[in-house]
Structure formats: C-alpha cells, structure tokens
Amino acid sequence: MISSSDIEGRLRLLRYGLVVVVVVTFLVSLLTSYVYLPGVALGSILGNALLFTVVVGIVAAVISFGYSMLLKRNAESGSSS
C-alpha cells in the first residue's frame, strides 16, 4: 500500500522533473534556432521556441494529471483489499 506522503513525494518529484524538461525545451529550441539560423529575426525564433515550450508544457501537464490519477487509484484499491 502506498501512503499519502509517498504519493505527494512522487508527484512533487515528477512535477519538478517536468518543469526542468519544459525549461530545457525552451532553452534548447531557442539556442539551436539562434545558432543554426543566424540571419533570422529574434522575434520569429522566440515565437517558435515559445510554441515548442507550450506544447511540451501541455504534454507535461497531461502526464502529471494521468500519473496523479494512477497513483490515487492504486492507493484506493490497495487500501480496500
């Protein structure tokens, strides 16, 4: 059986990891565009970087929500048996 503090710890660790993934996505998409496309305006590079970051952020939120539901369902089924 998983305790509630263990669930909160796992979710906190997952959220911190996903925040790091989102920040790294922004930096990598911004810097790679800047390095490989030196003649392009910064506004379009920033727009693409923000677009990629928003998409990865949405995927991270879905993963976090799904994992939260999975942990809570497993904790409930473990406590009832």
Give the SSE map.
Layout: H1 4-36, H2 42-80
Summarize this entry quickly.
The chain is mostly helical and 81 residues long. It is built from 2 helices and no strands.
Explain how this protein is built.
- The protein is mainly alpha-helical.
- It is 89% helix and 0% strand.
- Helix 1 packs antiparallel against helix 2 (42-80).
- The chain starts with a helix and ends with a helix.
- The model has no long low-confidence stretch (mean pLDDT 91).
Q: Point out poorly predicted stretches.
A: none
- Class derived from helix and strand content: mainly alpha
Number of domains: 1
Percent of residues in β-strands: under 5%
Specify the biggest β-sheet: none
Q: Could you list some keywords that capture this structure?
A:
81 residues, mainly alpha, 2 helices, 89% helix, rod-shaped
